Each structure stands twice: as structure tokens, then as C-alpha cells.
From TrEMBL, chain A:
InterPro entries, A to Z: ANTAR, CheY-like_superfamily, Sig_transdc_resp-reg_antiterm, Sig_transdc_resp-reg_receiver, WH-like_DNA-bd_sf
PROSITE patterns: ANTAR (PS50921), RESPONSE_REGULATORY (PS50110)
SUPFAM superfamilies: CheY-like
Record-given protein name: Two-component system response regulator
Residue span(s) of domain ANTAR: 126-187
Domain Response regulatory: 6-120
GO biological process: phosphorelay signal transduction system
UniProt xrefs under Pfam families: ANTAR
GO molecular function, one term: RNA binding
Residues where 4-aspartylphosphate is found: D56
Presence of keyword Lipid metabolism: no
Keywords, sorted A to Z: Phosphoprotein
Lineage, top ranks: Bacteria, Pseudomonadati, Pseudomonadota, Alphaproteobacteria, Rhodobacterales
Automatic annotation (TrEMBL), chain B:
Subcellular locations according to the entry: Endomembrane system
Keywords: Cell inner membrane, Cell membrane, Membrane, Transport
Origin superkingdom: Bacteria
Protein name according to UniProt: Nitrate transporter
Keyword Cell membrane: yes
Cross-referenced SUPFAM superfamilies: Periplasmic binding protein-like II
Family annotation (PANTHER family): ALIPHATIC SULFONATES-BINDING PROTEIN-RELATED, BLL4572 PROTEIN
GO cellular component terms attached to this protein's record: endomembrane system
InterPro entries referenced in this protein's UniProt entry, alphabetically: NrtA/CpmA_ABC-bd_dom
Length: 194, 393
């Protein structure tokens, strides 16, 4: 198998691009360029002229690559991998992992498949780590908000912590709102009244 | 409370996503038994892929995109149907402050709704090729630019360089000098003005006064397999559109859209498109543009097959496809049949036909309809052309 594919990775986060680079290097692909700037991305890509472009599904600059593939003379430009739906399983796996890939039309599938498998595995790992981190951060922020709101209630109404919490929860349920939203509203209102 | 059916609906945070956002937030969806999960998408290509692969059930989608997909152009080929039109018009064309100054120095009046004068001034001042940023290759933005500049004598194949720029980056791309002009949906034109990066020179509505902008898209097979859910979704979105058609509701609509989980931008900027009161340059007073963005008036929501035909005609000619064949396929995407079947029972007024001559109405006209209350138009093109889909060969 030949590994002489030129791969471009569009990724602003240095940590993530290092992960992807490492994954590809482990698989034997070393001709990899990382584009961390989305400015002038189309021009940079046409200069690099890669065989394959990997980009996060969540990257807003992805639409830029659509134009490369939609341009006439697509045989020399990256086109969407998803043009070929013969491998729905892999397309699905890529999407789940948050990866979109653009490959030059005419490249043989068996050359691309291993790259994508590697990239998918890496993206999956990264996106899992990211969502765990986000969830943890969010949970922490929400807990802080709720704790503050509880404190305000306890002070204002002279009630205990459990009672303050159940009052918040009951209000949230009555109003069909999230607990943190009710807590935040209380904090905002209190700040305004001070 | 009865059990709600969860429906995953993708959207791109723009003012014209209002019908879907309000369908959820004002409980129109819940009243139809739908838990409408709104999933904000970072790009049109991501939205398209997720819709085509079934990760999304429905989506707020650029009107030309289902047509391009059914013609096998760009990305995943899939049959996506437009159940109804979510919005008509709503784009604006802008240029850098520098270019606007140059146009003024050459005698441009600066009037916001003068497509011919402004087009000529832009062509004169910008040089060739004219680099214009748009959000996506298959979009009304691209169709309108080709139509406008083409009608003014520009060889758009050679002299129009369309660049794809994500809307939030439009202002800085203009400031960087990567593009001369842009055509973008609100609130991003107004945001470019706010950022003092540029000036708005023309509303899309001044090129075609009734251009279908976003549609409610679902996979064809999904609509076939879920007729009840499809009907319930259409009713919910229609009711939200009707609600948005009442002027008094617009301030609340912009407050809801402004929230962090949706557009996450100031309500005062979102207001401009909803009220048709556009501030074209920093510190200027608003210009009133009556049809800047239509969400309900003049049968906005009806998916005219002739609108699909107009879009297909433009795409086919630029991509070297047979226009007549493309028009046939495109017409099938715009589900006027489902619109009639699902919305007549709740009292929506229906036009007598599902096709019309596009561009024939210079002013509002009463037309025959099931309830006899329908007023259409204007739907004129700036150059007075009339598009008759049956005359395309």
C-alpha cells in the first residue's frame, strides 16, 4: 500500500491538530499540512493542492470547501467524499465522529479507506474527550449558579438549604423551565434590586 | 400532557429561521404533539449531510439546495422535498466602505433600492472580476447575483468571482480585502454595518421582489413514511408563520431569536430585518423596505412549483444540464400537493393553481383562491422580465 497521499487538516486548535497528526503519522501518513487559519482558506488549499482534506463537521468554514468541489473541472480538486455513498457505514461513522472529509475525485477507495478509518478513530476520541470536558464544565457552572441562588433564598427567606433547593425545583417544574434558568433569573433579579 | 413525538430539526442561526424557532418557543409544535428539537448547525454542508443521512428529520434549508441535491450536484445526492416556504427575500448586498465611497465619488446616489443605478455604479467602481462573498454555492444569493449582474450586461461566467464565506466572517473578509462585496442573509449584513466594515447597497428584494429564500426540507422517503407527522409539522410551522405575520408579535420574535441558544446577537439588530427597517451604513437612519423579508404575507409559505422551476433553470444553465429536465425534477421537490392536502383543513387559503408566471405582478393583486382572500405580489424582477416555466426548452 502506498502512503504518498497529501493530506490537509483544517483545525484551529493546536492540541487537536497535534492529535490528528500523531494518529496519521502512526498510520504512516506523514505528508500532512495543518491549516489553522480559516482566513484565505480556499487560496491556501489551492496552493497546497491536497489529495484529501479533513475538517471538523462543526467547523463553520466547511462551506468553503463545498465551493472547491462545486467548481467546474472537479477532477483536479477535492470533492466531497460523500459523493460516493457506496460505503454508508463509513460515512455514518465519520459523521458520528464529527469528521468531514473531502477527497480528490478519482482516488481509489482502497487508498482512502485506511486514512479515513484512522482519522475517524482519532476524531471520535477527540470529540468524546471534548464533550466530556464540556459536560463537566457546564455541570460545574450550573452547580455554582444553583448554589448561589440557594444562598440568596436562604438569606432572604430565612429557610434551610433543602427547603431553598426544593423551592427552586418546584418553581422550575411549575414554569416548565430548567433549574439553572430559574436560578439565574433569581440571581439577575437580586442583582438588579441591590 | 400527552406524549410528544421528538423531531430533530436542523437550522442555521439566521433571522429567517424564525418560523421554526417560534414554532418551538411559542408551543405551536407542542400543540401538534411534536417535541421540536432545534439543532443549530455550523454550516449548510453539515446541515445537508445530517439531513441526507437521516440524523435530522427536517431542516431550515436554502431554497436552491433541495433542487441541487435532486439534480445530483454537490455533496450527498438525496431526494429532499420542500414542504413549504419559510421565508421570501431577506438578503442584502453590501460593499466595503472604501468601495462605497468610490461609487459615491463617481456619482452614485446611495439610494438603497435602485438596482439598476447601484449595479452599474458597482460594476464601474469595482473592476473585474468582481469578487462577491456568499454563504453557499447553491443559494438564492448566487442566483440573484447572476440574475442582477447578468441583466446589466456582465458576463457572469468570466467577470463574477463568487467566493464562499461563512456569514459570521463576512465583515472581516470584506475588511481584509479578500472580497469586494457580499450578499448575505440577515442579521449578517447589519452586523457588517455594526462592525463598520461596510455599507449595504441593495436589498435582494430589489432584484426579485418575491424570491423564495428558505424552505422547510425533509427527506422524500421520510415524508412518505410519516404522513401524520409531516402534516403535524407543517401545521405547527404554518401557525408560527401566521403568528409572525402579525406585526405586533415581531418585537417578541426578535427577543426570542436574540437568545443565546439561537442567534446570540442583539435584538435591536435582528429587529431591522423583521421590521423591514434597514440601516445601510453606520450612524444612518433606517430605510424602510416593505418586502425586505416576508414570513407570511402574500402566500409566502406556498411552495410554488414555478419558483422551483426558476431556480432549476438558473442552476441547470450554469452547470451545463438540460434546463427542461432540471425543471421537471425541481417541480417535484416543491410539494404544493402536500401543502394543499395538509393545510387546507386548518383554513389556509389556497391559490387556484400551483404555478404562476414569475415576475408578472408589479403590484399586489387579488387572485382566485379557495377562500377568496388571497393577495399576491408584487413578484416582479427589476428588469421587468417574466419567467414562464412552460416556455423553457
Amino acid at each position: 500500500m502506498s502512503y504518498d497521499l497529501k493530506i490537509a487538516v483544517v483545525e484551529a486548535d493546536a492540541g487537536r491538530s497535534a492529535e490528528i497528526l500523531q494518529g496519521l503519522a502512526d498510520g504512516g501518513w506523514t505528508d500532512v499540512v495543518v491549516l489553522s487559519e480559516t482566513r484565505a482558506l480556499a487560496r491556501r488549499l489551492s496552493e497546497i493542492d491536497p489529495d484529501l482534506v479533513l475538517i471538523d463537521l462543526a467547523n463553520p468554514s466547511r462551506d468553503l470547501l463545498e465551493n472547491l468541489s462545486a467548481a467546474s473541472g472537479a477532477s483536479t480538486r477535492p470533492v466531497a467524499m460523500f459523493v460516493d455513498r457506496s460505503d454508508d457505514g463509513m460515512t455514518g461513522a465519520a459523521i458520528k465522529a464529527g469528521l468531514s472529509a473531502y477527497v480528490v475525485d478519482g482516488l481509489k477507495k482502497d487508498r482512502i479507506k485506511p486514512v479515513l478509518e484512522t482519522a475517524i478513530a482519532r476524531f471520535r476520541m477527540i470529540s468524546q474527550m471534548r464533550s466530556e470536558l464540556d459536560a463537566a464544565k457546564l455541570a460545574l457552572a450550573e452547580r455554582k449558579t444553583i448554589d448561589r441562588a440557594k444562598g440568596l433564598l436562604m438569606q432572604a427567606k430565612g429557610i434551610g438549604e433543602d427547603e431553598a433547593y426544593s423551592l427552586l425545583r418546584r418553581t422550575a417544574m411549575d414554569q416548565n423551565r430548567k433549574l439553572t434558568d430559574v436560578a439565574q433569573a433569581l440571581i439577575t433579579a437580586t442583582e438588579l434590586l441591590q | 400532557m400527552k406524549n410528544l413525538t421528538t423531531l430533530n430539526c436542523g437550522y442555521v442561526p439566521l433571522v429567517d429561521s424564525a418560523p421554526l424557532v417560534l414554532a418551538r418557543e411559542m408551543n405551536f409544535a407542542a400543540e401538534e404533539g411534536i417535541n421540536l428539537q432545534l439543532l443549530r448547525q455550523p454550516s449548510w454542508s453539515a446541515l445537508r449531510d445530517l439531513l441526507a443521512l437521516g440524523h435530522l428529520d427536517a431542516a431550515h434549508i436554502l431554497s436552491p439546495l433541495p433542487i441541487a441535491m435532486s439534480l445530483g450536484l454537490g455533496g450527498l445526492p438525496a431526494q429532499v422535498d420542500a414542504l413549504m416556504v419559510l421565508s421570501v427575500n431577506g438578503n442584502a448586498i453590501g460593499v466595503s466602505t472604501e468601495l462605497a465611497d468610490k461609487m459615491r465619488a463617481a456619482g452614485w446616489s446611495g439610494r438603497f433600492t435602485a438596482p439598476e443605478e447601484t449595479g452599474r455604479a458597482l460594476i464601474e467602481a469595482a473592476g473585474s472580476p468582481l469578487r462577491v462573498g456568499v454563504p453557499f454555492p447553491f443559494s438564492m444569493h448566487v442566483e440573484l447575483l447572476h440574475y442582477w449582474l447578468g441583466a446589466l450586461g456582465v458576463d457572469t461566467d468570466r467577470c463574477l468571482d463568487v467566493r464562499i464565506v461563512p456569514p459570521p466572517l463576512m465583515a472581516e473578509t470584506l475588511a481584509d480585502g479578500e472580497i469586494d462585496a457580499f450578499c448575505v442573509g440577515e442579521p449578517w449584513g447589519s452586523m457588517a454595518v455594526e462592525a463598520q466594515a461596510g455599507e449595504l447597497i441593495l436589498p435582494g428584494a430589489s432584484i426579485w421582489s418575491f424570491a423564495p429564500e428558505k424552505v422547510l426540507g425533509v427527506r422524500h422517503e421520510w415524508a412518505e413514511a410519516n404522513p401524520e407527522l409531516t402534516a403535524a409539522l407543517m401545521r405547527a410551522v404554518y401557525r408560527a408563520s401566521h403568528w409572525l405575520g402579525q406585526e405586533g408579535n415581531l418585537p417578541l420574535a426578535s427577543e426570542v431569536l436574540a437568545r443565546s441558544e439561537h442567534l446570540d446577537l442583539p435584538a435591536t439588530v435582528i429587529d431591522r430585518a423583521l421590521a423591514g427597517q434597514i440601516i445601510t451604513r453606520p450612524r444612518a437612519l433606517g430605510v424602510h423596505v416593505p418586502q425586505f423579508l416576508c414570513l407570511h404575507r402574500g402566500a409566502t409559505n406556498f411552495p410554488w412549483r414555478s419558483q422551483a422551476a426558476w431556480i432549476a433553470n438558473g442552476i441547470a444553465r450554469r452547470h451545463g444540464l438540460d434546463p427542461a429536465a432540471a425543471i421537471r425534477r425541481a417541480k417535484a421537490c416543491f410539494r404544493a400537493d402536500l401543502y394543499r392536502a395538509n393545510l387546507s383543513p386548518i383554513g389556509a387559503d389556497m391559490p387556484g393553481a400551483s404555478e404562476k408566471l414569475e415576475g408578472a405582478m408589479q403590484s399586489p393583486e387579488a387572485v382566485s383562491s379557495t377562500r377568496g382572500e388571497m393577495i399576491l405580489g408584487p413578484d416582479a424582477f427589476f428588469d421587468g422580465q417574466i419567467f414562464d416555466p412552460s416556455a423553457v426548452s
